[in-house]
Design goal:
CATH class of the largest domain: Alpha Beta
CATH topology of the largest domain: Nucleotidyltransferase, domain 5
Radius of gyration: 28 Å
Distance between the termini: 67 Å
Number of helices: 16
CATH superfamily of the largest domain: UvrC, RNAse H endonuclease domain
Number of domains: 4
Mean pLDDT: 84
Number of strands: 19
Strand content: 15-25%
Oligomer: single chain
Bound molecules: iron/sulfur cluster
Length: 554
């Protein structure tokens, strides 16, 4: 096989994407360039000695490129490849389930409103993301209260013959059974959209007109509702920090980085008011700052329908024009990427940077804290490795029926939800915890699991005492897994006692002080496994009850 340097020499001068791949052909990093040859030669033959670049060069064993016609296509292709392959060293917003958005189903003739963590191209309008789920839910609550937009699903909507309780309590005008005219309902939805877009001046004006009209026609209830909505809006305006005189809609973005850790802050300003702040964090990032910024812009805004006309960024970057074109196509109007040099907009970018730095500082302190916990755990449990990856298994069932085994995974102190697994117990229908544990472990670590190619954790934690630990060890032995560290965590019998940790070849539990950080960390993982299992278990039971009900009534 050609060396990386030889492969680099074959790169063309056209725009496109370049791919760093590892030994097993796994995608390590995807980048884009206006001139592939120039960019890749800067990696190999330039004077660039940034650690992230030398790291990539050491890790990669293959280097490939895909040519595109334009820089804009390269941006799009890079975005697609990142989504598809999720390279370890690129930023990836796909896992960004922390942020919640509000969806208004404008594709429907009588749109409904809901919160969602999935933003897809389906003709609906999405607003947000919101920094807190509570904030998004509060906004939906206010919308149903003042604008009475429906919250039922489209399916429910089309099957109604009578309005639901929402109508009775004045939270919906019941378009499902045509108790409101199409035009009037459309006005309600328009108000809600203006509200979500932060267009308070326009909305205030509309509400005042509507209130006066309702009073004139002696619709006092409606007039009172409009008055309350006005109060709410005025209250919100007073609460929001006004950052610029004369309005202005823009996002201000900046980030801070130390090594591979990056914290990015986005401040949303609408009509001159600071509406929200979003914080993103990324680890093991090998992108250069320009690529990081452009990757973020593409990944973040291509998912959104409410792109502001101006996005303030800390510096300009190669491919900025192509980025603007892409955002213009997506939003249907001009979007400018601006690096303000002075004035209030510059201050906003600096404010975003300060927020990012603070967040990064907090993250690093947390990281140092978890390092300490993990090394203490390694020592206490006699592990040869620091237990960076911990998996925990818990079984939940209802007297042995509808049992599920839940497996959660924590990496460096953080839950890794993409590595969570649920196993519906197939083999047993009796309350045999041991047998169920055996089945789950076989399915996770046995031959059946080999196709999943999930790496083994540094330690496997079992919910239970000595007995469960013995079962786990027996199961692992049966399936030929050796060298995997295992521990069991048993709940304290008395409130004044602490939970107990059992490890193989030791009769008595390992002693941890009650409330010690190490013990609390293991308890948190066990509780998460329990929560994850129960949540699914409840869902299964509800589904079963509904099916049983449907069968008996048919
Ligand atoms: S009243 Fe009708 S439209 Fe309104 S929420 Fe209930 S079912 Fe949906």
């Amino acid at each position: 096989m050609k060396s990386l340097t030889e492969q680099a020499r074959t790169f063309p001068t056209s725009p496109g994407v370049y791919l760093f791949k590892g030994k097993k052909n796994e995608m390590l990093y995807v980048g884009k360039a206006k001139n592939l040859k120039k960019r890749i030669q800067a990696y190999f033959f330039g004077k660039d000695d940034r650690t992230q670049i030398s790291f990539l060069l050491k890790k990669a064993s293959q280097l490939e490129f895909i040519v595109t016609d334009t820089e804009k296509e390269a941006l799009l292709l890079e975005n697609t490849l990142i989504k598809q392959h999720r390279p370890h060293y690129n930023i990836d917003l796909r896992d960004d389930k922390n942020y919640i958005s509000i969806r208004i189903g404008l594709e429907h003739s009588s749109p409904g409103i809901a919160t969602t963590r999935r933003v897809i191209k389906d003709g609906a309008s999405y607003f947000g993301p919101y920094a807190s789920a509570a904030g998004a839910r509060e906004a939906v609550d206010q919308i149903t209260r003042f604008f009475r937009v429906r919250t039922c699903t489209d399916r429910e909507f089309s099957n109604r013959v009578r309005p639901c309780l929402k109508y009775d309590i004045g939270r919906c005008t019941a378009p499902c059974v045509k108790l409101v005219s199409k035009e009037a309902y459309a006005h309600q939805v328009e108000d809600a959209v203006l509200f979500l877009r932060g267009r308070s001046r326009e909305l205030l004006h509309r509400l005042k007109e509507r209130m006066d009209e309702a009073s004139l026609q002696a619709h006092f209830e409606e007039a009172a509702r409009m008055r309350d909505a006005l109060f709410l809006l005025e209250g919100l305006n007073a609460k929001q920090k006004v950052v610029v005189h004369g309005g202005g809609d823009y996002d201000a973005i900046s980030f801070a980085r130390v090594g591979d850790d990056v914290s990015l802050c986005l401040l949303m300003v609408r009509h001159g008011a600071l509406l929200d702040r979003l914080q993103y964090r990324f680890h093991h990032i090998k992108s250069e700052d320009d690529d990081l910024l452009s990757d973020f812009l593409v990944q973040h805004y291509l998912k959104r329908s409410d792109i502001p006309p101006e996005i303030l960024i800390p510096f300009s970057f190669e491919g900025q024009q192509a980025g603007e074109e892409l955002l213009r196509e997506k939003s249907g109007r001009a979007v400018r990427l601006i690096t303000p040099k002075r004035g209030l907009k510059r201050d906003m970018v600096l404010l975003a940077e300060r927020n990012a730095q603070e967040e990064l500082k907090r993250l690093r302190e947390k990281k140092e804290g978890i390092e300490e916990i993990l090394s203490q755990l390694a020592q206490k449990l006699g592990l040869s490795n620091i237990p960076r990856v911990v998996e925990c298994v818990d079984i939940s069932n209802l007297s042995g029926r509808e049992a599920v085994g839940s497996l959660v995974c924590f990496v460096d102190g953080e839950p890794q939800k993409n590595r969570y697994r649920l196993y519906t117990i197939r083999s047993l229908n009796t309350p045999d915890d041991y047998g169920m544990m055996m089945e789950v472990l076989k399915r996770r670590f046995g031959v059946e699991a080999s196709g999943l190619s999930l790496p083994f954790p540094d330690i496997l934690l079992i919910d239970g005492g000595k007995g469960q630990l013995a079962v786990a060890l027996r199961a692992l032995e049966e399936i030929g897994v050796t060298g995997l560290s295992v521990a069991a965590i048993a709940k304290a019998k008395e409130e004044r006692e602490s939970d107990q940790i059992y490890i193989p070849l030791r009769k008595n539990p390992v002693t941890f002080k009650k409330g010690s950080k190490e013990l609390l960390y293991l308890m948190r993982i066990r509780d998460e496994a329990h929560r994850f299992g129960l949540k699914t278990h409840r869902k299964q039971r509800t589904r079963k009850m509904l099916t049983d009900k449907a069968t008996s009534s048919s």
